[in-house]
Amino acid sequence: MANPGMHPVTQAAAWMGGALVALAAMAVASRELAAHLSIFQILFFRSACGLLVVSLILWRAGWGQVRTRRLRGHLVRNASHFCAQYGWVYGMVYIPMAAVIAIEFTAPVWTILLAAVIVNERITPPRMVSVALGLAGVWLIVQPAGAPVHPAALAVLASSVAFALTYVMTKKLTPTETPLCILFYMSAVQLALAAVPSAFDWRPIPLQAIHWIVVVGLASLVTHYCLARAMKLADATIVVPLDFLRLPFIAMIGALLYGESVRMSLFAGAALILAGNLYSVAAEKRRSRSLQGSGS
Questions:
Q1: Model confidence over 217-230: pLDDT tens digits?
Q2: Where does residue 121 rank: exposed (0-12), middle (13-18), buried (19+ CB within 10 A)?
Q3: Per the database record, which ranges form the EamA domain (predicted)?
């Protein structure tokens, strides 16, 4: 994906490019599968593919790392992530792809609020600004000029809150759990959660859907992996603007493949959310440097 000889920022950009392609593939695969399968089936096969891949890796890396004393944390994290994935796929089927991505950008706003409640993180003034801009941005996106709100937009907004809870629970788990352990329980728990509703609404799987099942399963893992590598290589102030490129990229895919049109208010709202996120990240970075300077 990226040449080790490249500058770290260039490598991060390359990994973000991989994440963009994988995310677009997952979005298209989800929409194509929705013509044949229920959303619960899509989530079932997504988790099944993920569990197979993670199990193959663990077979080489060692199964001992999946032992955990924090099963409750894994269950909460993955119940939340399962709900988030359902809302995300539901949105991809019923509203423009770009609208889903734009609303998804509010996840950091909800993360700030949930982290204050769950892990007692302080809501600093820059974070308050981020929350205010984020809420203003989401209002522009979901209800432009007084137009009625599509139920799928509300589902995606709820999924963003659920994604935020997932991020907070991941932060609580990472001190004791390995990434492979977290990925294993993510796939296993969500496979179980999707199995029951899928069984009650099982639809025949046509041959033309099989390759999309593989795409939706693998693209999810690739997206998470590429984002993690990018975050490791570059500062968040660089990665966050690169992540914003998801919006025009997905808007272009939606326009080319499905004839979707995108309102300017969507980009304006997303820009407000991005500005809030960047301001908060930059302010926290300055605060951290100030604390380090005063302690030296």
A1: 889 888 878 877 77
A2: middle
A3: 14-142, 152-278
The contacts of residue 148 (CB under 8 Å, 6+ apart) are none
pLDDT digits (tens, 9 = 90+) for 65-115: 888 888 899 999 999 999 999 999 999 999 889 889 888 888 877 877 887
Cβ pair 16, 242 in contact under 8 A: yes
CB neighbour class for 100 (10 Å; exposed up to 12, middle 13-18, buried from 19): buried
Tell me the two tokens of residue 22.
Answer: 């994988």
Structure tokens at 7: 């500058």
Structure-token pair, residue 218: 């693998």
Domain ranges, ordered by start, for the chain: 8-197+207-287
Q: Which residue is it, tokens 């998470």?
A: 224
Q: What's the rounded Cα separation, in Å, for the pair 232 and 225?
A: 11
- Rounded Cα–Cα distance for residues 80 and 156 (Å): 13
Question: What whole-number percentage of the chain has pLDDT above 70?
Answer: 89
Cα end-to-end distance, the chain, whole Å: 39
- Does residue 28 come out as left (phi exceeding 0), alpha (psi in the -120 to 50 range) or beta? alpha
